[in-house]
Amino acid sequence: MPRASASADRFNAIAESRRRDILVMLAARERPVGEIVRAMGLGQPSVSKHLKVLRDVGLVEARRDGRQMFYRTNAEAVRPLHEWTRTFERHWTHQLTRVKDRAEQAGAAPKA
Predict the structure, then answer these.
(1) How many domains does the chain contain in total?
(2) CATH number of the CATH domain containing 97
(3) 23 domain-assigned
(4) What is the pTM of this model?
(5) Regarding beta strands 60-65 and 31-32, do their DSSP bridges make them parallel or antiparallel, or are they unpaired?
(6) Three-state SS string across the chain, please?
(7) Is 70 exceeded by the pLDDT of residue 106?
(8) Fewest Cβ atoms closer than 10 Å to its Cβ: which of 92, 93, 107, 112?
């Protein structure tokens, strides 16, 4: 089965780690493209392609100020991704609690 296009939906868009990195960077504040390029260490065309995918699926918004483009995260569009990952939070919390309990039991066991 062929893989869906990155711009098909938000989950496909964030499947690429560089796009996730861009989202994390934009979560703190709006940034101009040049700053994203420098922080990512990628060429401007590559960053622009990633930003286009994120914009096409609604995860980032852009505004122009003179000749400069500024990007920011669209928090409402990120919400469904966050809610979906929270589905698994209970599982991992449970697993980590089990690991902690076992470690504490092993630490409390009498040593021979």
Answers:
(1) 1
(2) 1.10.10.10
(3) yes
(4) 0.70
(5) unpaired
(6) CCCCCCCCCHHHHCCCHHHHHHHHHHHHCCEEHHHHHHHHCCCHHHHHHHHHHHHHCCCEEEEEECCEEEEEECHHHHHHHHHHHHCCHHHHHHHHHHHHHHHHHHHHCCCC
(7) yes
(8) 112
51 near 36, Cβ under 8 Å? yes
Q: How confident is the model at residue 6 (pLDDT cuts 50, 70, 90)?
A: low
Token duo for residue 9 = 């939906």
Residue at 22: amino acid letter:
I
In this predicted model, which residue has the larger pLDDT, 85 or 30?
A: 30
Res 36: pLDDT: 96
Whether residue 1 is contained in a domain is answered as no
Yes or no: say if 54 and 21 are a contact pair by the CB < 8 Å rule: no
